[in-house]
Amino acid sequence: xxxxxxxxxxxxxxxxxxxxxxxxxxxxxxxxxxxxxxxxxxxxxxxxxxxxxxxxxxxxxxxxxxxx
Length: 68
Hints:
Blueprint: E1 2-8, H1 13-23, E2 29-35, E3 40-45, H2 49-60, E4 64-67
Antiparallel strand pairs: 1-3, 1-4, 2-3
Domain HMA: 1-66
Organism: Sphaerochaeta halotolerans
GO molecular function: metal ion binding
């Protein structure tokens, strides 16, 4: 499965790296890509439930989920 989440708060490559590294720690995430310019985060995952976990994690690391 593939899900796109729109976020606020990423400003640079470091933010993108932080986001990707955090999301890849979730067991069912197979890949993650983040784009600071657009705020898009693309997550490939195995289960729908993974997205609620990903949204919580995004908030915990200091970014805001705008839409999923």
